[in-house]
Amino acid sequence: MTATAVVLVSILTVVVGTFGLRRARTTGDFYVASRTVTPRWNAAAIGGEYLSGASFLGIAGLILAYGYDALWYPVCYTAGYLILLAVVAAPLRRSGAYTLPDFAQIRLESIAVRRVAGVLVVIIGWLYLVPQLEGAGLALTTQTGAPRWVGGLIVVAVVLTAVTAGGMRSITFAQAIQYWIKLMALLIPAVVLLGVWHHGGLSERRPVSVTVHSAETVHVPVAESLTVRGAVDGRPVDGPTFLPAGPHRLAPGTTVDLRPGDTVPVIASRPVNDSASWLRPLGSGTPHPLYASLSLIVGICLGTMGLPHVLVRFYTNSDGRDSRRTTLVVIGLLSMFYLLPTVFGTLGRHYVPDLLLTGDTDTTALLLPERMLGGAAGVWLSSLVTAGAFAAFLSTVSGLTVSVAGVLGQDLFRDTRATRRLRIRSFRLGAILALSVPYALSLPTERLGVAAVVALAFTVAASTFCPLLVLGIWWRRLTDAGALAGMAAGGGMSLFAVLLTLVNDDPAGWLGVLLRQPAVWTVPIAFAVMIVGSLASPERVPGSVGRFMIRLHAPEMPHR
Amino acid sequence: MTERVRVVHPRTEAASRAPAAAPARVPGGSTDVDDVSIRSLIRGQARIAALVTAATAVLLGGLATLGAFWPASGRTKLVPWLVLGVLVYPVLIALAWYAVRQTERNEDAFRDVTTRR
To answer: How far is it, in rounded angstroms, from Cα A548 to Cα B83?
Structure first.
């Protein structure tokens, strides 16, 4: 059932891709789709591309683990578009830039800035791709028992086929359809589960056996006796075992039986909180939660405008006004979608709390229907959620692949006199490189939760592209030297913090908190360095800045 | 709108050699825009951008800080969930609608000024 669902979604993506192949004739078709896309389709396509595995599966898992504080993720994923709409949407469309490196080059007339922007696009794209591919592996393993590496490989294969065959033209239509697939794949199960829950028709909660596959440290919140088979703290056990409150080490292969009502031991990478604090604002159990929330808000809200796959989509709007109206529709579509992960997260806290023991909280939405309903209905709804999850992985991964492949294909294998066929071939080579690196990185990573890792990619974007875009659009005195210094400072610091968090090596105390959520200090520093650097090099202000400002802000001819 | 227009992105040779050289197309066919009116348009649009950003910051930052100083409990413990899980979205949509309307008004006013001459 689940395998059928995954195959169906994959076939749909490839079929629309090959349909696009017959129509894609020129390089222009290949990269931006000939402009026949209306704002409403475009908005659905943006939504379809943007709602990744992080939104579809990850947010519900974070709500299960962190409670109220995780509600900031969907809110900020939406509010980011509000900032984008108000600050950059129309000028960015009018700039004629198709990618962020294009904007950097056109605005500052500097190949060096273009190159640095290109490197950042690749880094942010890879940071974003790794958790998607990892999540795909986790989802497939949960539903079919396939090995962890299979899910990511399926996504890579399907996306490579669709993207290298049809280019972006095909993706515009595929993406718009993907939005509605994803919405329905969460809406239908959510309505059914809420309805059944309301009428009390749930199957009885049964004991669950949880097996840890690698050595894990878990935190036992209250002293209790659990049935454990395997080894705890180096001692072999088989049967009811008394576990004092505190950390315990489970050996690989250890199985814990959890009855309804047992307090679930929590893996070290997730915070410990009881149901009262889970419900309360700032009660997630992480250190300095107010700082963490505020920094998360800054990072996601300002990072959205700097995501490589989002800007590309704006280029298919016909003018600046359309791009604003498109963004308004996007915010509406996202608001509708983001009501749903909260439903799964809160129900999950009650029905699948055992996920806290393995840390696989990203599977909350996948497991919930089977656990709550059982029987054929549960399997059917779980398959629907799996199909939606793969739609999410495929759409985001293909969008990011096009962006990263564009940079790799154009800037790394550069030869401006290359023939059309050669350029398309370099784009295809770029696509292969764009996917193989994150796939390799996705295999051994530490699990922090898809949505949390994606938020780190936002933070890097907020610390580099946000100052470049905001100052580039609104401040005449920006120079290439200032932009380079600012992107280097913001990018270097945020990337350092992000990598420390990813290898789970950040220090304890305030320093660790600052490194785990760095946006609140990296973004202002990046802005400051960019401004000071520009003021220190006034002779480097490009001569075309006056004309360019007119082009960014003057409205186009009205439609006839 | 349904007529097929071929779009070529600016990573072509022409764009990389002579970036931003194209004169602005301004309603009325003029290529030289009055500096005063374009500067006042940019100022007006910047004001809206700053206003919407500030409103978002106050809204979200305020809600986050409120949780620290006014922890809901007892009967009101679900109010924060209702606010951040549902009610905040219509506010974001309203702000977006305001931004679209105001920026378009500024552009219309600018167009009126530049075409009247």
So the answer is: 42
